[in-house]
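Lab notebook, bench 4. The sequencing result for the construct came back, and we need a structural model before the next group meeting so we can plan mutations. Quick request posted to the team channel:

Model the 3D structure of this chain.
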Amino acid sequence: MPTLPAILKIPMTFERRMMRIVEKGDAEEFYFIVFNSSLDGFEGPGYLGYIFYILFFTQLIQAYSKYIINNLSIASREKIRRNLISRLHIIRRSYFNLLSDYEWDFIRKYGFDEDWIRSKVLSRNIGTKVDNIYYSAYFKEVRRIMESERRKASSEFKTLYKLYTSLMKTGIEISLIFAWILYLYTYLFQILRGNGELDDIVDASLENGLHRKIIHNLIKMSRLYGYDEKWVSRTFKYAMFVLSKNVDLEVNNGNIEVKVLGSWPPILLLYSFIVMGVKPSARDMMDAQKPMCRLCRLFWIGVLGYFMDNEIKVVLHTFKIRHGLCILKLEAIKEAGEEAT
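Done. Here's the predicted structure in token form:
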């Protein structure tokens, strides 16, 4: 079983690079890291871009879980309600076990503690709305400050340090909220494992065009946060890093292969089973994982279909629990008389 990717992977990865640049007072390089860098230091969505995708996936998970729950039978919805009421205190307590000692040190360094997490994170249910107005205003304010600093001959340490600290705190806050929503989501499917209604509901989501709604919501949300469609087309391949250790996307003449390594859900599912006091079988894990894999499929079908201007179909989808490796092969459906691009 792979180890759990750090909940605070994004802020922890960028912290040292940001601090070094703040000490140099290099506003131009700081701007690059915040808006144009990848996790490995090359071109990418930037620190705030990754945070944007965390916010997007938080809301995507919420929307998809709502869709699933709304289409379940009354008996299944009642089963979820009873389980959450009886075990929510245990689920909240087990959430803290997801954080490593190193992550706890990191959190406390920026003024967060268990009481704050209980009050601001664990008080949320899976449907609690993300305040897009607040966060989008924050994104735009960061950009305004950075544009101003770039125009100066040199930046004051105090200004950049204050901004750096604010960015770290915001990244921690959003990452912890996302992890909690994802944990509740995995627990939801742990409760529903083996439920015969799920396959029909998930199949219907494609027929109802949910994959197209995903990309339209992504574009709409990006505009609210000060990005545009071109930015999304350039950066969406980085979105899955929110859920994984590594992602590889290859597109060749309409044939698409996505490899996602070390994804969160298998490990979170194990925690969910432990909370229930159940020793999971491989079949239990696969049954619980399947609806979550289909959320990933919806994302890629919607995004690739939009930017390739083609309908996308899944040719092959395999998931290996032991290694946390997902391989997704898709194909752009050719229109009559046309070649897929």
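Confidence is low (pLDDT under 50) at residues 336-341.
Will bring this to the meeting.
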